[in-house]
Amino acid sequence: PPRPRPRPRPRQGLLAPSNPPWPSRSVETPLIRSGIRSGLNHGLSPVDAGRRNPPNPSPMTLSDRAPTPSASSSTTAPSSSSPWKDLPRRILTVGVGVPSIALLLRHRTTSRLFFQGAHAACLLEWRALAPAEIPETAGARSENGSSDGAAVGTGSGRDDAVSRAPGEIASNDAQGSSLSNCLFCLFSVSSAILTVLPTSLLPLGLLAHGIAVRLIPHFPRFQACHSRNATILAAAEHYQFGLLYLSMGFHFLLRISRIGGPIHIGNLFFIVWMSDTGALVCGRLMKRKGSRATTGRSDTTTQSGPFLSFLKSISPGKTVPGLLGALVTGPVSALMYPITFSSSSSETEDHCNGEATGIDKALQLTHLTLNHPLFRKAFLGLTLSLAGIVGDLTESSVKRLSKKKDSGGLLPGHGGVVDRFDSLLVAGVVYYYLLLA
Question: Which of 106, 357, 375, 408 sits at a 20 to 30 Å CA gap from 135?
Answer without folding.
Answer: 408
